[in-house]
Input
Amino acid sequence: MKIAVCIKQVPTREWQPRIRDDKRWIRGEDVAYEMNEPDAYALEEALRLREQHGGEVVVCSAGPARVQQVLREALARGADRALHVEDESLAVSDAFVSAGALAAAMAVEQFDLVLTGLQSDDQGHAQTGVVLAERLGIPHSTIIMEVQVQPSGVRVKRELEGGWFQWISLPLPALLTIQSGINQLRYATLKGIMAAKKKEIRRVPLAAGLQPAQEIVSLALPSRAKQTQIIDGSPQEAARELVRRLREEARAL
Output
């Protein structure tokens, strides 16, 4: 089975973001980057499927030159080779452009299965995997919690709202967006890190004609504010009103 895993490089969660003067994205100076966490779970699932059914795991990413950091990390964890659509403009691209860039590079590979994380930790649109499936012309399913390979394709468990789950079957090739927590992540060993230095990272130029479908108009840091509300009435009435607000407004119950 030939499996592709799409990964993204995102700012670390510990980094305090600073917004650029034009308010359209964060400043890139002195930023530490890491692998997008949902993508790490997708990579782990691909490695487990390869261990069970054989084949090859290829990690794919679209972004500037610094993206090779997470590609090398994925290779050290066990991926066989990497594909990098390299262009500086992809550092702030929307889901449509990122998916288009990946699709143009991945189409010739003819993957049996494509895995992505459910969403990215920076923009969180949860759109790239779905758009990529459309660009590749293959079926897809989202929020996957379990993958079973069958002779006719794959059977997957989707997470729904309210604690419900759904089992569906898809023919191959297919694309799945993986939910965090589907498995237990592995980390790179010293042997894996040394082996990654010899594995191939194939650079692919950005396809021409890709135009963004979305535009970030303005970013702002969350504001912190406190507000005190006095609930009138008897203790019993105040308690009932407090419970109602916690359940219906704050949704804490």
